[in-house]
Amino acid sequence: AGLMGMLISGVAMTVGLVLLSQFAWMSYVSMVAIFLFVILFEVGPGPIPWFIVAELFSQGPRPAAIAVAGFCNWACNFIVGMCFQYIADLCGPYVFVVFAVLLLVFFLFAYLKVPETKGKSFEEIAAAFRRKKLPAKSMTELEDLR
């Protein structure tokens, strides 16, 4: 619900910004959409970097995995913070379409590639990853790269 709610909030922010010059009350739509976006982020994908590594890694590599996940999380936050104004200048009122597209891609990735870990032991999760093998064509392509 978090990702799709954020996507809908991003679309609402875009609609609010596009129609702001025609309807003054659209600023309230944008403000509500921003608050909903932040709330849905915090209950949805926001904590993922902090808990998914605890479910996917055993005790030995877990601290390093948490460090990498935390670094990636903060690096992406920094990049978004530093680039947002340039993207806003480039896209104008459609700036949140960029975020909506990224949210859609992230939703599809999570739905198709991230395993369900609820009620499973670490051994079951690791076994599921081991069962997923590259197709023969991909292995051949990898060997050609060497």
From TrEMBL:
GO cellular component: a single term: membrane
Transmembrane helix keyword on record: yes
Membrane topology listed for this record: Multi-pass membrane protein
Bilayer-crossing regions: 7-25, 31-53, 65-88, 94-112
Keywords of the record: Membrane, Sugar transport, Transmembrane, Transmembrane helix, Transport
Stretches assigned to the Major facilitator superfamily (MFS) profile domain: 1-118
Protein's cellular compartments: Membrane
Major location (coarse): membrane
GO molecular function: transmembrane transporter activity
PANTHER family: SOLUTE CARRIER FAMILY 2, SOLUTE CARRIER FAMILY 2, FACILITATED GLUCOSE TRANSPORTER MEMBER 2
Protein name: Glucose transporter 2
